[in-house]
Amino acid sequence: MNTQKTSVAIRDLGLSFGSVNVLNRLNLDIYQGEFLVLLGSSGCGKSTLLNCIAGLLDVTEGQIFIQGKNVTWAQPSERGIGMVFQSYALYPQMTVKGNLSFGLKNQRMAKAEIKERVARAAEVLQIEPLLKRKPAALSGGQRQRVAIGRALVRDVDVFLFDEPLSNLDAKLRTDLRVELKRLHQQLGNTMIYVTHDQVEAMTLADRIAIMKDGVMQQLADPNTIYSKPCNKYVADFIGSPSMNFFRGDITNNAFTLGEKTVDLVGYDFKAQYSGGAWFGIRPEHVCVAEQAKSCDFNAQVVVDIVEPMGSDTLVWTTLAGEPFRFRIEGQTDMKHGDTVTVGFNVARASLFDVDNEVRV
Amino acid sequence: MSDTHLAEPSGPKPKKVLCRTNIMLYGTLIIVSMYYLLPLYVMVVTSLKGMPEIRMGNIFAPPMEITYQPWVKAWSQACTGINCDGLSRGFWNSVRILIPSCVLSIVIASVNGYALARWRFKGSELFFGILIIGAFIPYQTMLYPLVIILRELKLMGSIWGLVLVHTVFGMPILTLLFRNYFASIPEDLHKAARVDGAGFWTIYFKIMVPMSLPIFVVALILQVTGIWNDFLFGVIYTKPDTYPMTVQLNNIVNSVQGIKEYNVNMAATLLTGAVPLILYFVSGKLFVRGIAAGAVKG
């Protein structure tokens, strides 16, 4: 990531359809060469934001700058962006070559230049043998590559991706994800990527912006988002299976968890806090058996359901009257009805204020 | 394998040809198609007979002596009023009305539909609503106002006046047709084209039209049959020299002077019906494809 130079800047952006506010005074700075992922569940406004940046939707208020230029009122084609859609949106009646050169022809570019650019993009994406084919004769992965190529030939500063991998099967998605990352390293362009898939977000992003109801919840690198979520929504959204939550009170630097108390000495408080709180701990941060004994907190639980997944195993139990999941290594002989000792360190936990659900 | 039990079910289930379902199904189909085809058969047979044979009264009997004279007479000699050059005059009038009306209405309606489906503007829904209401107003209420409008435009009685009327009356249904079809084309395609720097007309000609062949065929069939079969507008807004074929057919068949030449009448009717009939045969498949619109995917 380049440290300072801003590529895309969004200032007080707002968008409403009638009385519905889809985006609410949004501010966002995206650095040159950064891979930013907009993450959120459906209907959170992430695609809308991307469409606003692309110029496909007119904003109700605020400004958008791309490469220092105010493009708030500019046409999509004048903004220096390329966009890749979830449905690929290839022109079905044109060949791959026609698809790639359509945008360039609209710019009235010289034929030789078009040819050169198409050839270069085809080489980067390894789609040279497909140039004469129609989109209908391509597989999903090939179509997506052509769609990326269409953005690539235009030699733009900013790439916009609108859930580009959601229509592909699981294996292909994993392959293309890696390829996208490689492409980003190779090209060094600014990329803004919309997805609802947290794995894509975690693996691809330099920074993740988590959105909910048109408001940015947290903007940080994947590691911070994962280990120090700024509120309960983010904590719950990131991680699969999601975080275990317990409702309780913090008094004298200790959390009451059912009949037990958890000593919070190891927890990195933002400020001194006492009162109602949510205590959250990720399933993968729970220790079992011998390891659990050396943790800040431990307890006995009865195994309810065991879900072996090969590389690891997910165990469902109940702790202090709440469902409690934890993840252990793949090979285990744990079964329904067993009693095990579980424990965790408070340094890995997250605490949220009950009233506003903000991290404390 | 040798130990397969032959008596037990294995492989495809044997089908009985003469079972109750088949008899009911095909029996109904045959009866219904006979019911519809019989009049056509009578017309064809009668048009190939001479008058003496017709007077014998066996309308279902095939012609004993085939004669094409009635067809020739219907096409080039039958009299309507003072003109005795048969249906050919009406045919060419109809062609001259049909081609510009079809082209104009389809071109305008497709652009309308495209704009209403993809370039929403303030009040576009209202505009569309008003247009659709046009499809529900009975034509009769508009006949006289149109006479006045055409008179003021000095188009009354000319072929171009009728072309204008057909173009306007085709607009609601065709716009609806095109709007719905274009709306079924993924919006992402439209967005991608806009990012690629294509404007209103580039997207229309390079993206939308090439993807919409089936709906253009449907529109063409609707317009050709509708305009060709039109009688009401033809009889009101044109004059004897410019009467379309349907009006002329009526004048030949309903003429009260002299003897009724049934064979000529039948031949004339078949000639008039030939254009839509041939169109249906030729374009049947495309028509079905277009009606089941949205079936074409990239």
Question: Would you mind describing this structure in some detail?
Answer:
- The complex is a heterodimer of chains A (360) and B (298).
- By secondary structure, chain A is α+β, with helices and mostly antiparallel strands.
- Chain A folds into 2 domains: 6-232, 3-Layer(aba) Sandwich (Rossmann fold); 236-353, Nucleic acid-binding proteins (OB fold (Dihydrolipoamide Acetyltransferase, E2P), Beta Barrel), CATH 2.40.50.
- Chain A has 9 helices and 20 strands.
- In chain A, the strands form 4 sheets. Chain A has a 6-stranded mixed beta sheet, sandwiched between helices. In chain A, strands 13-12-11-14-20 form a 5-stranded antiparallel beta sheet. In chain A, strands 15-19-16-17-18 form a 5-stranded antiparallel beta sheet.
- In chain A, strand 17 (312-319) and strand 18 form a beta hairpin.
- In chain A, helix 2 (96-106) crosses helix 3 (111-125) and helix 2 runs parallel beside helix 4 (140-152).
- The model of chain A has no long low-confidence stretch (mean pLDDT 89).
- With 298 residues, chain B is mainly α.
- Chain B has 2 domains: 20-67, no CATH class; 88-291, MetI-like fold (Orthogonal Bundle), CATH 1.10.3720.10.
- Chain B has 13 helices and no strands.
- Chain B has helices at residues 20-47, 51-55, 69-76, 88-118, 124-133, 140-152, 159-184, 187-195, 200-208, 213-229, 232-237, 245-253, 262-291.
- In chain B, helix 4 (88-118) packs antiparallel against helix 12 (245-253) and helix 7 runs antiparallel to helix 10 (213-229).
- The radius of gyration of chain B is 26 Å and the shape is flat.
- Mean pLDDT of chain B is 87; it is low at 294-298.
- At the A-B interface, strand 6 and helix 2 of A face helix 8 and helix 9 of B.
Layout of strands and helices, then pairs:
The complex is a heterodimer of chains A (360) and B (298).
Chain A: E1 6-17, E2 20-31, E3 35-39, H1 46-54, E4 61-66, E5 69-70, E6 81-84, H2 96-106, H3 111-125, H4 140-152, E7 158-162, H5 170-187, E8 190-195, H6 198-204, E9 207-212, E10 215-220, H7 222-227, H8 232-237, E11 244-251, E12 254-257, E13 260-263, E14 275-281, E15 287-288, H9 289-293, E16 297-308, E17 312-319, E18 322-329, E19 339-344, E20 350-353
Parallel strand pairs in A: 3-8, 3-9, 6-7, 7-8
Antiparallel strand pairs in A: 1-2, 1-4, 4-5, 9-10, 11-12, 11-14, 12-13, 14-20, 15-19, 16-17, 16-19, 17-18
Chain B: H1 20-47, H2 51-55, H3 69-76, H4 88-118, H5 124-133, H6 140-152, H7 159-184, H8 187-195, H9 200-208, H10 213-229, H11 232-237, H12 245-253, H13 262-291
Helix pairs in contact in B: 1-13, 3-13, 4-7, 4-10, 4-12, 5-7, 7-10, 10-13, 12-13
